Amino acid sequence: MYRRRRLTLAVLVIFVAALLWWLTSLAVDALFEDEEPGGAGTSQGGEATSQPSEGAGTGSEGGEGSGEPGSGESGSPDEQTEETGQCAPEDIEVRASTGADSYSRTDAPLLIMEVENTSSSDCTVDLGTGAQEFSLEHANQQIFTTAQCGGDTTTLETELEPGDVESSHLTWPLSDSSKDCSEPADVPSGEYELTVDLDGSRSEPVTFMLGDG
Fold first, then answer.
1. What percent of the chain has pLDDT over 70?
2. What's the CA gap between 9 and 5, in Å, rounded?
3. pTM of this prediction exceeds 0.85
């Protein structure tokens, strides 16, 4: 009877030990299963942190893009002209002409300056008297120039469309500007050469005759 009890107790101990080992195995397996998703999540998280690094690369390209407007600030001469709106010297043509091919001493010659916008864009030019110069020569000697006359000067900012022509007239009172701009003088007869200048843009010379009578 005593031996049966010991045998039963031994079997019970073995059963409990087996049960404890099985429960422990289950707990360990469950622990490892819980850790595996966490490990995968860490790996995915590492990939996610690499994406901002790619974004930083895109930002670098954006930096290069932001540098391009900086280089554009210097601009080409054409761009600068468009920004300021002022006619560049190569945008306009200045021409000289007279009211007639010949004059007598009883007629005051009419001197004409023409300014044409030869560019393909609108631009603004100063057509005031302060920017103009009329000059007359005879036998390579200067007889008259408005640069010696002084007086009131004006500015006249004028917008010219492509192909627009503006003109300015001056009546020459047969004066010698080195002495007096408005009083007639005993100027020589013969061929005279007229050139006009607008703020540094000079025309080709044109000629006319001044007679004796």
1. 60
2. 6
3. no
